[in-house]
Structures are given as C-alpha cells and as structure tokens.
C-alpha cells in the first residue's frame, strides 16, 4: 500500500523516510532528512537520523513490552495504557 502523494512523486520525493513496521496495519515513519544525494550512503547527516530512528524504535518496543503502549483491539492504532491521545516516548 502507498501514501498516494508519495507514490505520485516516486523517486522525486524530497525526503528520505525510515520506517518501523509494528504490524500489518501499523507502520511508524521517521524523518530521514532531505535527500541531498542520490544514494542514502552519500547523504549528509543521514547516520544521525538513522540512529535517532533506531532509538525511537527501541523506546516503542520497550513501551509495548511494558504495557505503556497498547495496540488497539482492531490492531490499527497504538494508544497509551491510560487512553490519553498523546503518546510521549
């Protein structure tokens, strides 16, 4: 499945995105920064963004393990254990 705006832009989409797939229905996107080179390896500042995304993935995984974050019954959303709308990791 595609986000239509991103699909239409194809390789001209100006940002690099990292993703973390929690389930078939839940994917978290992380900002990889502005594409300033053709390949990810040549992009300036990419490693910092990648390590930030990895840190957030670890926080999400720990919050899911500990029960602070819950996947809803329909498996389409994450929510706080106390049903608060704002998730802070």
Question: What report would you give on this structure?
Answer:
- The chain is an alpha+beta fold.
- The chain has one domain.
- Helices cover 30% and strands 24% of the residues.
- It has 2 helices and 4 strands, in the order αββαββ.
- A two-stranded antiparallel sheet has the order 1-2.
- The longest helix is centred in the middle third of the chain and has 21 residues.
- It is globular.
Characteristics of this structure?
24% strand, 89 residues, single chain, two-stranded antiparallel ribbon, alpha+beta
* Assembly level: single chain
* Terminal CA distance: 27 Å
Instruction: Report low-confidence residues grouped into runs of 5 or more.
Output: none
Summed up, the domain count is 1
Helical residue percent band: 25-40%
How much strand content do the residues show?
15-25%
What's the short story on this structure?
By secondary structure, the protein is an alpha+beta fold. The protein contains 2 helices and 4 strands, in the order H-E-E-H-E-E.
Helix and strand layout, with pairings?
Layout: H1 4-9, E1 15-21, E2 27-34, H2 46-66, E3 69-71, E4 78-80
């Amino acid at each position: 499945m595609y986000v239509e705006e991103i699909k239409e832009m194809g390789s001209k989409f100006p940002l690099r995105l990292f993703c973390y797939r929690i389930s078939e229905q839940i994917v978290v996107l992380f900002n990889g920064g502005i594409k300033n080179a053709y390949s990810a390896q040549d992009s300036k500042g990419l490693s910092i963004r990648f390590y930030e995304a990895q840190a957030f993935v670890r926080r999400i995984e720990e919050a899911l393990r500990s029960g602070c974050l819950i996947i809803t019954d329909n498996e389409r959303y994450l929510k706080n254990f106390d049903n608060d709308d704002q998730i802070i990791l």
